[in-house]
Design brief:
The complex is a heterodimer of chains A (255) and B (515). Chain A is an alpha/beta fold and 255 residues long. Chain A has 9 helices and 12 strands. Classes of the chains: A alpha/beta (255), B mainly alpha (515). The interface between A and B is medium-sized, with 31 and 30 residues. The structure holds adenosine-5'-triphosphate (ATP) and magnesium ion. The site of magnesium ion has 4 residues of chain A, from helix 1.
Chain lengths: 255, 515
């Protein structure tokens, strides 16, 4: 077992996400061509790559929003198969934050956050609401609890979405371009929440174009292209010494 | 450098937008009223020329109309006959709306199903039903029922279910002595249960202990109903109270009713105006009212006063009752209310029987070789079956498409977010997708309900005695075409407005709060 230190308070643990040769087709178009990687507990992995390279498809396979057709995915010791029981267990352990927030517009912020704990975890309402208030304080918007999503700014909505995922007490968080739909002045407030989450020891897989975030927080960066991981390494490696031509081209375009 | 400001000129009236808008509003209103007055006068003139005098006496005149099914098969007056027709229309309409909603929703969801067979069956249902004229379908169901076996003397007996070309007999319940006193127990159970469930809900909120508020409400009602089943005879002591209330209404001067009507209509207008002003109040202070706003306020005020006057006019209207004496509408209302309480009092005096008893359809010989169902159970006649099945299946096919569209209109991200949180399919459909689909579905659904109600008038094609069929019979007997048509229109307009009001109420409740 390897224990490698990053920051003093963040000690990486065992492998919690294992992907082995994951392949996925949409009709006859192959979106994932054999993705293999392992993520350790408390590790922060940033995924970058050009549009259409399969980044979203990959992390959506990790909680079965898409079903992979070949290869193996094991989350916290449970293999993702057609077994509904496994899927249910994994979904309640893996939180996901989307580019478009996907808050439930007919429910208040409070009800958005307490919905899954009450119905999936069977938490008493009072307890779920107390937890929700703590989470809203953590993401910095306790005063918005009784509003509806439509009444909040984009940055506030995305922070509610993060709180909603955290309410299920997940062990892994997936982020699919969480700041891409936000105005520049709101990006920072969401990134700050994500940084705090990383520092607290959450295992995170983040698809993003925010290179500042990658440099500051990531333990490892994966570069995707044409459905495979073309290159991986520390942020340092990517910013100073990328190996592949495609990686160099991509980084020159976005930096 | 200074900017020259030309002296503020007064806008001429013909260029003043505000003034023109008011002229237009009032102009349209006056034109409309004038049109109605003109049409009414012409119609009256034509009537008088044709020798038929336009009037309402036929409402209280005895009719020879026999109605094939309904709450009264040989009504003693025109108004009673129409009432039977209205109840028949409502029976088909309301039960049809409920059935079409359930069926349509299931088929709409079925059409989205990944199960190939369910999916194709739903599609075939929708495409075949939607594309055949409703009238043909009604004839089809009538034909289907008429080829069922005839009733013969061999069939005499009691059944749980019996299908024949005279209709379908089904075991059912009927009320018996003690029903109304027992109902009082049930209503008390509902009221008490509400408090119980509220109390338990509060406990659950405070302590987190699961207290099943809904279930305890239900249990309370059951307990009250069970106790009432045996204890209802003691409510006999209430009988004098009901009779007392009846005497009170009989003693009340009839002028009270139009006064109440007037107060209600003016009060309603005042309330509306107050709410309207309230809705224009923003945190920043009172918003400025536009001309349109003022027009609405003035219109509401006028309507309130007009309705108040109308209630006095109607209240003073003298009618001839079936008994032959003359009475004003206000007096008739007073008598009606008193009669209801007296009847209630009498039903509390009963001490034998059981609130509800089972009742099974029975086939008996009625006269020489003529075999038919007796009163027992519930019998669905062939015309009722044809019109009910026709409008229900037809409307369900449209509702299915509306439901499908509504569900598809909810963004895919909603399902994904709910799945990512670990909610099961049945949970996220109920908690996330359907509530959002509902607000898209509701307005077109209201239209389908209106259509179904109006389509029941096709019952005339299979001789189902709904309001149009009964009205036609009366019209043929008396020649009073215009009054009968007015009654039809008034009935359907009232019904439609009622449905619209309910739909709008829910629509407003379901509205999603936006910035
Ligand atoms: N449901 C689908 N049906 C068919 N093709 C799909 C589907 N989802 C994704 N694809 C295809 O799979 C490929 C990978 O898509 P994916 O969304 O994973 O890319 P991405 O790397 O996330 O790109 P972006 O940066 O634009 O979000 C794309 O070519 C896309 O067109
Ligand atoms: Mg993507």
């Amino acid at each position: 077992m390897t224990m490698h230190e990053t920051t003093p308070e963040r000690v990486l643990g065992d492998d919690i996400v294992i992907a082995e040769g994951v392949k996925k087709w949409f009709g006859d178009f192959q979106a994932l061509k054999g993705v293999t990687t392992r993520v350790k507990e408390r590790e922060v992995v940033v995924i970058i790559g050009p549009s259409g390279s399969g980044k979203s498809t990959f992390i959506r396979c990790l909680n079965r929003l898409e079903a992979h057709q070949e290869g193996t995915i094991i989350i916290d010791g449970t293999e993702l198969t057609n077994d509904l029981k496994n899927i249910e267990k994994i979904r309640s352990e893996v939180g996901m934050v989307f580019q478009q927030f996907n808050l439930f517009p007919h429910l208040t912020v409070m009800d958005n956050i307490t919905l899954a704990p009450i119905w999936v975890r069977k938490t008493p309402k009072a307890e779920a609401e107390a937890t929700a208030m703590e989470l809203l304080e953590r993401v910095g918007i306790p005063e918005q609890a009784d509003k509806y999503p439509g009444q909040l700014s984009g940055g506030q909505q995305q922070r509610v979405a993060i709180a909603r995922s955290l309410a299920m007490k997940p062990r892994i968080m997936l982020f699919d371009e969480p700041t891409s739909a936000l105005d520049p002045e709101m990006i920072k407030e969401v990134l700050d929440v994500m940084k705090e989450l990383a520092a607290s020891g959450m295992t995170m897989l983040v698809v993003t174009h925010e290179m500042g975030f990658a440099r500051e927080v990531a333990d490892r960066v994966l570069f995707f292209d044409y459905g495979t991981i073309v290159e991986e390494g520390t942020p340092e490696h990517f910013f100073t010494n990328p190996q592949h031509d495609r990686t160099k081209l991509f980084l020159s375009q976005i930096l | 450098m200074t900017v020259e400001v030309r002296e503020h000129q007064k806008t001429p009236l013909w260029r003043n937008a505000t003034f023109l808008k008011w002229v237009a509003q009032i102009g349209v209103l006056i034109a409309l009223l004038a049109l109605f007055a003109l049409l009414g006068r012409e119609a009256l003139k034509n009537f008088n020329q044709s020798g038929i005098s336009f009037g309402w006496k036929w409402l209280s005149d005895p009719t020879g109309v026999d109605i094939r099914e309904g709450i009264d098969t040989s009504p003693d007056s025109g108004v009673r006959a129409l009432a039977v027709g209205m109840v028949n229309t409502l029976r088909v309409g309301i039960s049809g709306i409920v059935a079409a909603t359930v069926l349509g929703t299931l088929i709409g969801i079925g059409r989205l199903s990944k199960n190939w067979i369910v999916n194709k069956l739903s599609t075939i249902y929708i495409e075949s039903i939607r594309n055949v004229p409703l009238l043909l379908q009604i004839f089809f169901w009538q034909a289907m029922a008429l080829v069922l076996p005839q009733l013969t003397t061999d069939d005499v007996g009691t059944y749980w279910f019996k299908a024949s070309n005279k209709g379908f007999g089904l075991a059912w319940f009927r009320t018996d002595g003690g029903f109304w006193p027992w109902m009082l127990f049930v209503v008390a159970g509902i009221v008490v249960g509400r408090y119980v469930s509220r109390y338990r809900h509060r406990i659950q909120e405070e302590t987190g202990r699961i207290t099943y508020p809904g279930l305890s409400w239900f249990a309370t009602v059951i307990v009250f109903a069970a106790v009432g089943w045996f204890a209802w005879p003691i409510l006999r002591i209430l009988a004098p109270v009901w009779h007392g209330i009846a005497s009170f209404f009989r003693a009340l001067p009839p002028i009270v009713y139009p006064i109440v009507g007037a107060i209600a209509s003016i009060g309603f207008a005042v309330l509306w105006i107050r709410n309207f002003f309230e809705s224009r109040r923003t945190p920043a202070g009172f918003g400025k009212l536009t001309d349109d706003d003022w027009f609405r306020v003035i219109f509401a005020g006028f309507s309130g006063i007009a309705l108040a006057i109308v209630s006095f006019v109607i209240g003073g209207f003298v009618l001839t009752t079936v008994g032959g004496d003359k009475a004003t509408v206000a007096e008739l209302i007073g008598r009606g209310i008193a009669n209801v309480f007296d009847w209630f009092g009498r039903s509390f005096e009963v001490t034998s029987g059981s609130p509800i008893v089972g009742s099974r359809p029975e086939v008996i010989v009625k006269g020489a070789g003529f075999v038919n169902f007796s009163e027992g159970g519930v019998v669905m006649s062939v015309p009722f079956f044809a019109i009910w099945t026709g409008v229900t299946l037809y409307t369900a096919s449209f509702i299915a498409e509306i439901v499908r569209g509504g569900i598809l209109a909810v963004p895919k991200g909603q399902t994904e977010a709910a799945m990512a949180l670990g909610l099961r399919r049945s949970q996220y459909l109920r908690l996330v997708i359907l509530p959002q689909a509902f607000r898209i579905i509701l307005p077109p659904m209201g239209n389908q309900y209106l259509n179904l109600m109006k389509n029941t008038s096709l019952g005339i094609a299979v001789a189902f005695p709904e309001i149009v069929q009964v009205g036609t019979t009366i019209l043929n007997q008396t020649g009073q075409s215009l009054p009968v048509v007015l009654v039809w229109m008034g009935f359907f307009v009232t019904l439609s407005l009622g449905i619209s009001a309910i739909v709008n109420y829910y629509n407003r409740k379901m509205m999603i709060v936006e910035r």
